[in-house]
Amino acid sequence: MVKPGSNMEAAIDCLRNGEIVGIPTETVYGLAANALSAEAVAKIFSAKNRPFFDPLIVHVHGITEAEKYVHPMPEKAQKLATAFWPGPLTLVLPKKEIIPDLVTSGHDTVGIRVPSHPVCLELLKKLDFPLAAPSANPFGYVSPTTAKHVADQLGDKVCYILDGGPCHVGVESTIVGFPQGEPLVYRLGGIAVEQIVAVLGPIAEQIYSGSNPAAPGQLDVHYSPRCKIVLSNNNTTPDTPETVYLRYTEPLAGIETERQLILSPKKNLEEAAVNLFAMLRQLDNAGYNCILAELLPETGLGRAINDRLRRAAAK
Ligand code: TXA
Ligand code: MG
User: Fold this and answer.
1) 8-169: which CATH topology?
2) What would the mean pLDDT of 232-244 be, rounded to a whole number?
3) CATH of the domain spanning 228-313
């Protein structure tokens, strides 16, 4: 059982030896391996129980670094990279040969991003290969936002867990692809669509879902706690002592506050995103049988949060 720590050299040794390591990013913790080694990357899939049709994101420490692994970027991709890297934006671009097919599930594109977490950037700069990393949770479960979350579920499967503190964005990166040379939002995430529109103008969306075969990976059921989750704005589920509440800014009147968690006492979507996955885990582990979750305003990061809540409830 591996204990999280801040020993950068230990993480580097593991990665150089083709082993897998839990790493901090600003969005969620990743389960990382040498992206240029199919043998190392295969260990990610088996540790997570992840299906091979779900491609991984490759992490690099800068735009010049990214250019080693993708063909020349369309102008709009360059604009986005300049505006949002380092940060929670993944660009899906035609890959170069050097990226193994296992990383991309056989697609001729690769998802690539420059994370902004200082510990992650330092690690990437010290390595002479990029890191493939999905979120460091068993496939389908809630994503991890602390090193302890990683240790709790994958502590016996990793070579090391590099602790970088709690993630300060809290939802995964926004994913943008360029299937016909024009940008298309595939996944809502840590960069709000409004921010992208401010750089590129209006942008089309094709949010990943199971019924959309052109979009790999992202299933309708995902981010799921073990207990049932119900979206409380959409139903009239009666209160029972086994029910807990996940609220946006305020507790529901008439229900004990011990059975309610508030995503953002400060009333902002950024704080709600930071708390989302940790609170879902906390409620899931508290022995209740139903989480009644409130949907947030459909704007900014609220859209990414609601996307996660809907998939978690889709069980
Ligand atoms: O914030 C994040 O993106 C985190 C941190 C660790 O960087 N990573 C993450 O990875 O969320 P993961 O594996 O949970 O989600 C990766 C998703 C895939 O499920 C797929 O939907 C999309 O990225 N993706 C990756 N490569 C792709 C490709 N070549 N074409 C289309 N979609 C791709
Ligand atoms: Mg994930």
Assistant:
1) DHBP synthase (3.90.870)
2) 79
3) 3.40.50.11030
